[in-house]
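Bug #77: duplicate submission created two jobs. Keeping one. Sequence:
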Amino acid sequence: MTRILIADDHTLFREGLKHIMAEYPELVVADEASNGTEVLDKIWNNDYDMVLLDITMPGMTGLEALKQLKNEKPKLPVLVLSMHPEEQYAVRVIRAGASGYLRKESAPDELITAIRQISQGRKYITPSLAEKLAFEVEADSEKAPHDILSDREYQVLRMIAEGKTVKYIAKELSLSAKTVSTYRARIMEKMKMKTNAELMHYVMKHRLVD
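Kept job's structure:
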């Protein structure tokens, strides 16, 4: 029996996952969460065998929740489910302690395979992600500019590149506009760039946004 916490801010997606897993008696959806803070609250007060975690949630992101979750319960397996391509987040979440990364558009059979593999104490890594991880190891001493950003800086970078205003980003991330501007300044400094246009060109070139 595998007791699973589903964490996603979309009710319909959570219902879809529950429907898929209902066909497998050994998989039990024990609880649900709709944001990162709720995830942490539930794992502190309950015992689960696995967490299915969305990477993009309001307020505290899935990535931030993942890091705190692994600090609190390092042996609790986490399968990250995301609408974003592997290029954008997969390496970061594996580095943060996730046991696997799967696109939300993946087939139900692949989801069940990933859950079973992870529940056995193994990782679920697609061939393309394995190649990226191998490249990361080889190139670790020469990181790409975006790889030296913190997770929050990386999130702000992507939103700037999507054309979001400082005011919008602040509201979306529950931050002050001043804090967002500080993040932007740090990003510019770390990536040695001066304008949003340079950032947008870089992000598009490296396929960091959809």
